[in-house]
């Protein structure tokens, strides 16, 4: 079992404090969901975990099996088993999907243990079929000209190919129609098991109808203010953030993240 621990995490961007003491522990075998108003720091948390240089950690710890993640470079975090699916994946012309994924897989392996072309292609074909992705997408340039739904499926394809220990999925459901949402959810559920954990950032209960979380966290004003099981997300759907904030005696103002 692996453990990702976030302890009293404070993060600023351009001297403005966004995270104000986040505490969260996640183990493999668990799916966690984070919900909260815009501007409360959900995406900031994902960026800090993966080491986005635009965000400055001013206090606190991020530990992966006791190792200090904050001392790792971004590529070291990926090799250690962390994965981030972002809201708006970048387009990279000149590099095909297949080339990118094989290079990423080999970057995690020893020099004398690179994946063979045939083994890579067999796995790629299998995972693309699972996600109902046409074969030609493997030879298209990475995300170039992809629709929003294609980009999100491609992020999940990378997840399935790389098999990280922990995946942070930042609004992976954003902009998806119901068919694409079902396919993306199918891919994430395929990864569920004792050797995988995921932190899913979402605004909507509809995603959690397909990926039932073990733990739900509500963030407000840069902190986790409430934690519960899947029923907490359903309650939030009924009461809204206003109801939760009034119960906790928290004033919040919804802003853009």
UniProtKB/TrEMBL annotation:
CDD domains: ABC_FeS_Assembly (cd03217). The keyword Nucleotide-binding applies. Keywords: ATP-binding, Nucleotide-binding. One of its GO terms (molecular function) is ATP binding. Signal peptide: none annotated. Residues 4-246 form the ABC transporter domain. Belongs to the ABC transporter superfamily. Ycf16 family. NCBIfam families: sufC. This is Fe-S cluster assembly ATPase SufC.
